[in-house]
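RETRY 2/3 - previous attempt timed out on the joint model. Re-submitting the same 750-residue input unchanged.
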Amino acid sequence: MNKNIDDKIVELIKKNENISNKEISRITGIPEKEVETRIRGFSDSREKIMIVDDEMSTLLPLKRSLEAQGYIVIEAYDGYQAIEKAKTELPELIVLDLMLPGIDGFEVCAQLKKDEITGKIPVIMLTAKDEVRDKVEGLEMGADDYVTKPFNLNELKARIKNVLKRSKE
Amino acid sequence: MVYVSYEHSQAAIHNSVNTNLLVATENTGKAIDNWMDARKDDLRIISYIAENSENEKLQKYLNSFQNEHEGVYLEFFIIDAGGNIIFSTLNNPSNALKEPFLKDALEGRLFISDVSLSSTTNLPEIIITNPMRKNDTITGIMGARVSIENLYMIIEGIDIGRSGEIFLVNNKGELIFHKDRFRILHEKINNNFAVKEVIYEKRGVGDYINYKGENVLGSYYWLPLYRWGLVVEQKRDEAYADIITLEKETAVISIFAVFCVVLVAIVISKRITEPIESLKNGAAGLVNGHFKPISVSSKNEIGELTEIFNQTAEELLDIRKKLETKIKLANKDLEEKNKELIRANEELKKLDNLKSDFISLVSHELKTPLSAIRTSAEFLESEDTMDPDVEKEMLNNVIMNVDRLTRLINDILDLSKIEAGKMEFHYEKVNVQEIAKAAIENIRYLALKNNIAINREIPEYLSPLLADKDKLIIVLNNLLSNALKFTYNGGEVVLSAKEEKNYIEIGIKDTGIGIEKDKVAKIFDKFYQADSTSRRKIGGSGLGLSISSAIIRAHGSEIYVESEPRKGSLFYFRLKKFETI
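RETRY 2/3 succeeded.
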């Protein structure tokens, strides 16, 4: 479906090079913002990763590290924001912290997996908790992997690579 | 009783039957004796005559004697001392010499032989002999062969009933008299109780099964002179006919008696069981505690028992009531104690939960900055070429999180010290103006940055406080920084103090986001943040209020909160004035 929308947008641009995002949004029925993101995505072949964490100090080094690896990184600070951004930004992967204000990571994961568009986005759970119970619960919610804090950055990067590779197969 | 009387009657009848039979037997025996005595007398007389008479004369006398006695005497004979028959009334004298009586006769005694079958007539006979003397010398023996048919007839004359049987045996058990004559000396009776007894020379009466296999009552009588046993038997049915009648009557009487007894028993038992039943019910009621005194219906032992029971029951009920009251009180006491225990237990559980919650919270709070430090450092280490701005950003992140960790650890240590009662407080005279200035100074930079005005509303003259100065500054700092954190840019925070009669009230008021009513109670909990997003924006260990509250509590007071969402909050506490004594 995503592909179809992208194809449609490309087709529209081919027909009329000067077509506005607003016009495309009207024709395809997709929000203007999403149209913008998709169009930007055509020119950027880098993989997009969303990090969801309410702790800026945790999020920041991870963001910088992934950026240095050549990923596009977008941030979300709570559960609602995460779900919203997942739908508009359509990241290739989500790194999701469990302890979030508002709705927690489990709930975010469950909601993402329920949605047709976001359901296929792989999720790596990230939390300070390291109890087996949390891991099982996270995986039951549809998380693709699990990393506990404090994590090894290289390990997380390897996992991200791995999950991305798997999701493309 | 019926049975006893039956027993008695039966025994009496039995006795009388037995006695009758015995008497009849004895009479028979006596009749035999009489008859035999007559024979003996006869022979003595004849002997005497024979001693003094000529043979011819004797012959005539004896013949007439025989006639007189109608076939009793079959033969008279005389034997000389040598054992030869020298005289006989018969032409063919019997061979009497072989008889053993000779010896007795020669010794001067009268002898009666056993019954034997006559060699001439083949009828039962006895031989009686008596010595003859001349000048005290035995010259011979006078003997007589005697038919005992006459005797038999006498015996048969005795009434022994329809089924009765009478017979004589010799000492070998051979029949020497029976109504069936052909059996005499042809039959020997061994398997008969009375015969066995009688040949042991006994007399008596008894019930037994006779030689014919019949149940009989038998009487036996030993006649020692002739060595004869007389046995009279009667079938039991007949002998005890009266007893059988008695048995039947007894049975009828017994059944009637049993019926009567049962009837009487029912009546009597009812009279006995009814009071016992009511006693029983009374006892059961006593057990249940619903006792009603039992009415005494009779004046017998049961009536007395009932009265005693009533008395005892009343006493028991009294004791029971007292005990019940005691138990109730004890139970109540126990219940209360139990409730206290449950309460204490719940509190302990709560404390335990709090403790484990605290540990998990602390671990999370510690891990988060650690994680940030590690990730930042790892990133710095891994990249060879790095944007200097990013590098600085990472180093800054490390420093920030180290500070945060240090603060957190200090706060935790402070809090556990206070909670363990190990924090020392140095109470002194504290000037409110002074500490207010110090506290504001510490947060001035933060306030300026966020464009929040901090105002002091503290009167010029204010009584000094009795407090730990340093700790009080910590409290003010915590409350002020909290106020700043939750106040929008351009807002206002006021630190006020006012003097009351016994204390000074210090308040920190802000125009911030306020606290929802349901969250007010929780804000003093460790690591609690009314709005979780606040942590990211505001920072702080989450222990500030807990510590502040503990410090003020150590001063014997309490921090109060008044708050309205979106309008602001007021935190205030009261401290004792410093009094110069």
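Chain A has a mean pLDDT of 83. Closing ticket.
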